[in-house]
Structures are given as structure tokens and as C-alpha cells.
Request: fold
Amino acid sequence: MARRKRPPAGSCEYCASWGELTMHRLCPPCGRMRNWAETGRYGRQMGSCRRCGYPQPIAQDGTCRACLLAVRAGQDEDWMWSEVRRGYLPPGRPRQLAFSLADVTLPEANPLRKHDRPMVSQKIPPWVRQLCPSPLRDDPRICPPQMPGQLGLFPTPRRTFTKYDGGRIHDREIPDLPPVIAELRKIATERGVTGASWSRMTWNLARLALAAREPGERQVHPETVRQLPEMYPTIGEALQRAGLLAPPRARLVPAEELDYGSCGHCFAWANDRLTVCLDCRQWSYLHRGTGECRRCHRDLPIADTDGLCRFCRVVTLESEVDFAGIATDGGDQLWIGREAAPQLRTLDARYPGLRRKGRFESKRKLAQAAERAVRTVSAHLIDPGQLELFPTPPRDWTRLNEAGLPALTTTAETVMEDFTTYIDQRGWKRPQMGGSNRTLRILLAHLGADTPILEKDVRAVASLSSNHQGARVINYLRRRSLLLAEEPVDRHLAGARRIADGLPNAFGDAVHAWIDVLTGQGSKPSLPHNPETVHRYVRNVASTLKAWDTAGITDPREVTKKHVEDILQPLRGTAARGLHVGLRSMFRALKRERLIFRDPARTVALTVARRLPTPLPSDRLRGLLDNIPSVRDQLIVALAAVHTLSMIQIRRLRMEDLDRARGQLRVRRPGRLDHIVYLDDLTLQLMTAWIVERAERWPDCTNPYVIVSNQTAVDDLHPHVSKEVVHSPFQRAGISAGKLRQDRLFDEARETADPIRLMRVFGVCSATATRYVAAAHPDKKPGPIQA
Reply:
């Protein structure tokens, strides 16, 4: 009998194990796998291993025998758990080399993954479970434990439990659970339930209900019990028997409006079962107009100002300044309702014109501060060393963006600080000077402070709105030599020129020549008239010139004496007197300038009834100064009532003309001799008190006029006060200044009956003095002055 040949020994070509080999130089297990791969048994086939990448027989999961041995030996736990979790790792991982020894059996090399179907659960082999035992069942995501005594920052939202959540916290220590389990056992005995599944499920649900309690609370609210997925009546009965069920809360809203979910308008989740949250209800009350929102295109209550609903307005305001990073591209930011919801101010609907306040305004201010911090100096600053090539055209300040002003230079910041000091020295309050500060900052930011600023630019910026003021800015820049002033234009002369421009061509040119003569700019020198008088003359004759042009008279040379008489015939009183004086002045000036051949109004006479002066009743004069609280107003009334000064004379009284040591006051009269007024004791006391008050209120006032106001006292142009200042005390007293002057002249004429004395004391002309003497003494014959 022939001896059987011993199998050769060596290393297997597939698994590299050392031992007896088959005729194909493979170990017996690898040889069997090759046979199975050739015949397709047990899912084996030839291919590259998914793990090591070598070509050889592979199992149905795509791995070779050597890789299966390495995973089974615990040398690659990452690959093992990746296979269990259906993951994929790149090939090239190391293999397990083993010895094939007698009486030593290697472990089974079975694949870990039997299939790769997505919806079928993967069965974990027992040896894999032994490598990683089951952890402690306490999922921190299920009702995480909270610190007792700590108040909640946000209201607890409605929970959504599953029937497996109780088992996921099986090993958590929950207080008061044993008495509830004991009650559940009693309920099972009463109902005759003997199955273990019922007990396991009810115990897990009770554990879940107790874990959902608020921190510091021992009892479970009925609302929490109803949130359990199933069997909540049984759990509620067990909790009630154990004394752990809280009494039900009173409902805060009608039952017909209760519904779980978010707000139907703003989508805020409030957990209060309201279909529309309280904030959106308030918005609907204030904005009763319902329409299509121009942003979300929903039919909701919208604001009249921007056409947005409450939700879109909050989203746009939140995303306008995105400090929190909540702005979304192509989506909207949702929020929690009730106390945590963003409170949108709706004062603009109830009180139009008020600015919104709150965190939206704070965010906007923070954004503006951050923007100002990175601003650069304007690129249009005027260089003082650069000559002007062309005249500067008027700048258009109407497109100014105040939110993006350039940064101030060092010189400009110094000017702004000096302007603040200037405000304090003048005794003004800083909050009231916001318009002036705003105007000066705009000019310095765009033009700089190295060269003077045009006065027309200051006035253009000041005319943008009522929140921009330029009068004090002009005065300050003039003091600092930073102003290129314009030639002053009298508003009365400008009004007269404007009326002349609106007349027909022939009459318009004639009126312009007439204005030149009245202002002393004619072909022959003459004294200029008061601009107010010029304006009044032109205003009185303008309607007559237009009527003549409509009637076919196209040139002033065509006007005859009959035309003047016809236009004056239907008029009476002041209207007739004003038109007659205006026409006589106009034709006299045109004849002087040789624009007409004859004066048609020269021989036209107008009969005017002159009223004799009458005294005022004594009861109206009694206690006149007692009803006037201001010292300045008392002085104005005393000058008019005692010394018969007119309003224009009172406005033009100068400090240098006052001699308090002698009690004299000089009244300047253009074209006539000055008049000296001897002040009585009352007027002198009022004058002294006013000078003291003026020095206390405006210590650095340089206005040369005696009567000043809050505006003229600090104006560097030194204007006299307006008409309203000198007329206001008489309006407050309910008496006319002209009546007071007449009463004083009439009283003096009645005492003296001497016109010369009236002329010396009050500075009136001879005709006026004679008229008052005749009115006071009608029984006396006319004297030589009247003749």
C-alpha cells in the first residue's frame, strides 16, 4: 500500500496564515471559500475586498476572510461599528495574519451585514453586543433634569411624547415613582390585568409624566398628563390616588377659541391655544384696515403708512440691522409668542408723528454709531490753496443724506466745540439749539472749515426742514470770519420788484424806474424813501395798472387826467387816499425821468375828510401799566403814552442817545432836526430798570438799540426789533398806540392852547399842533399859524 503524500506547508496566498496548504497553495478554509466562489454558494464570489482591496474570494458583504478575522479579533472596531450602522470606510485597512495550528480552530468568518436594504432593520451579531454592552438608559434629551428653585426664562412649550420615551429614561432616579407604581399594581389587580406588557408600558408612562414636572413642583399638572401618547386616563387616576395630581387650572380664553398651534398671523408659538396671539389682536384693533400685505401677499390687517402686516414689519425691522445674525436669505425668522415675542411699537398708528422707541430704535442707533466710527473724510473739501477756476454754481442740498455724513476733520471738530461754547456764553439751552448744530455739522462735514462758507449754502441747508436753523450759524460764522456774506436784500424792496415783474411789459418797466427814483437810484440824486413806503406805494397802484392794461391802455403815456379821475371816483377813505398818493408819486417820478410827456395826476385833487382828535375815556387809561408785567413793555407804553413817540421812533432809539444823568433822550428823525425828549420820573425809572435787566439777561449784548428782544440781542447784524415786539404790549392792554398819542397831544393842547409848546415838547409839525389846539379849543379864533 502506497504511502499518502503529506500536504505541503507554507503561507496561504489569501489569508497569509502559516500551515498545511492545498494543491492551490491555500489553507483549507480559503480553499473552501474559493470553491464556493467558483460555484456561487453562500453568496461567495471573486472580487476585490471592500476593506483591504486585494482580489480574492469575498463574502456577500464584499469583504475577504482575512478582514473578517481581523474584525472578529477586535482589531478594527471602527470598521465593525461602521458595518453595523451601514456606514462606508475607504479600503486599504490592515488584515489579520494567523497561524493554522493543529487542534486550534479559528473563529467563524461570517459577514457582519447580511443586506443593504434601507427600510429593514439590521440585526447585530451576539459577539458584537459582547464587545459593547448596553449603556445606562437615561437619555438626556427626554425631559432633562432641571435645578429646583430656578425660574424659567421662557414658558414651557407643549411637548410631544412617544410610547418609547419612558423606556429611554428607565434608569433615571425619579422621586415619587414607587407610590405611583404601587397604585398601578392595585389598578391592575382591580381590572384583572396579568400581562407584563401592560405593567411595563404604564410604568414607563408614569415615569415620563413625573419627569415632565417643572423644577420645584411635586404634583403633575393635568395638561401634562393629557400630553402622554396613550393611556393618560389610567396614569391620571394613579397620580390622583398617590396625591401627585394637581388641580386643573382655570381657562383664560373662551372654549370656542381654544386650539393648539401657532398664531395665524405672525406664526408665533405661544402654547396658549389662541388662533391669533394677543399682540396681533392689538395690532388689528389699531389697524382696522384689512388688505393684501405687499410683502407676504396675505389678506391681513395692514398699516396705512407702509402697507405691511405686523409679521412683515417685525421681520423687516429685525433684519434691517442684523447684529444677532438672524437675517435669512429667502426665508423669514419665526419666534416664540407671549412674553418672549418681539414687542412692536404701534404708537405711530395711535399718535401720528411720534418716533418709535424700544429695541428696534436702539439697534438702529447702534448701527448708526458703528457706521459713524468707520466714516471717512469727505472727498469734496475745499482746498484753501486752490484758486477758483469757474464761479461756484449753487449747490443742491435737497438730496442730502444726513444718515451718511462724512467724518469731521480736526479743524471742523474744533469749530463744533467752539460753537458749543458760543451757545453757552449766549445763555441758550443746548437742547433748543439742535437745529443750529445740525446745520453747522452738515456744512463742516461736506465743505470743511479751512475756507469760508457761502451764506447761500447756510440758508439752503436751513431751508431743508423746520429741524434745520441757520440764523445763529450765520452769526457765529461771521464772528469766526468763516462766512462769505451776501449783499443784504431788503424784503420790502424785493416784494416791490416782484410785483413790478408781474405787471405788463410797458407798465412793469415804468414801475421799475419809479422804484429806482424812490430808492435814490434815479438819473438825479434824491433822498431814498423807506422801503416799507415803497412797497406800499407799488402794492396800491398794481391793481389799477392791470385794469388799465385790460381796458386797452398799453403805455403810461396814454393815461390821461380823466383816467385817473375815473379810477378814483368810486373809492372812499383810506383806499382812495393810498391810490391817489401812489399815482401822483409814480407819474411825478416818470416825468422826472422823462419817460412820459405830462403828469396826468398833477392837477387831480382828492377831497379827504380829516377827523379831529378826540381824547380817550379816563377809565381806559387808569391802571394801564399795572396790566403789563414786563419792564420792557411798560417802557414802550410809557414812551408812547407820555412822550408821544411813534412805533418806528421807539424801535430806532439808540443807547448812545440816552443821557440818564440829565434825563434826556434824543430822537433821530431822518431829513429833519433831532428831537430832545425830557424824561419824566416814571419813564426814567422804567428806562433804568430796563437797562439793568438787559445787562443781566445779555451781558455781552452789543446791539446799539435801546429796545431789544431775544433774537436781536444776540444777532451780530444788530437789527432793530420787529413791529410785533412794540405792538404786543398795546394788544395785551386792549388799546391802540395811535389813540394813546392822540390823547396825550389833546390833553396837552387843552392845558396850554399854545401850538408852539406842542411843537417844542413833542416835536410835531406846525399843522399837527394847530389841528390839536383847534380841536381842544373850538371856541377860539384861528391864530396866525393857521392862516
Notes: The two ends are 189 Å apart (CA to CA).
